[in-house]
Amino acid sequence: MNSFLKSISALLFISTMTAFTACNNNKNQEKMKEQNNTSLFPKGDKLSNDWFSGDAFLMPLLAKDKNNDFALGSVTFEPRARTHWHTHPKGQVLIVTEGEGFNQEKGKPAKALKKGDVVNIPENVEHWHGASANSKLVHIAITNYKSDENVVWLKPVTDEEYNNVVNN
Ligand code: MN
Prior knowledge:
Blueprint: H1 3-38, E1 45-46, E2 52-53, E3 56-62, E4 70-77, E5 82-83, E6 86-87, E7 92-105, E8 111-114, E9 118-121, E10 127-131, E11 137-144, E12 152-153, H2 159-166
Antiparallel strand pairs: 1-3, 2-5, 3-4, 4-11, 6-12, 7-8, 7-9, 7-10, 7-11
The structure holds manganese (II) ion (MN).
C-alpha cells in the first residue's frame, strides 16, 4: 500500500469512528433527555413489600457519612403504593418533586402532597406517606439517624385506612 492510500484509509477509519461515537453520544443524550423530561432522578430499584405496599422504588442519592448524619434518596410510589406505618427516631424531611400523594400522622387527618411541598416529620411520630389513587408520587427523603437506625417499621396501611384517605 502506498503512503497516499494508507493516509486515505486512516482518515476513513477516523471519520467512521467519529461518526460512530457521535451517534452513540446522541443516543445517550436522547436517553438523558427522556429521563430529564419525566423525572429528576432515575426510579431506582423496587422496595420490599415487607415495608411498602404496592410498587415503590428507591434511588439512593447519598449515604450517611462522617459529615452527614442522614440518608438521602428519591422515592417513587406508583398509584396506590405507600409505606407501612413507621417512625423515624430522629425525624425525616420529604421534598415532593413530582406527582400527588398523601402523608398522614396516626390519629390525624391526612395531608395532600403536591410538587414543591416540604414535609417535616418529627421524631417518633407514627405516620405513612404514599401516592394518591390515580397519580404517582415522587419525593426526596432526608432521613436522620440515631446511632445506626433511621426507621422503625410497623404495620401495613390497610386498604380500608388508605381508601378512607383517598376517597375523602
Ligand atoms: Mn417516613
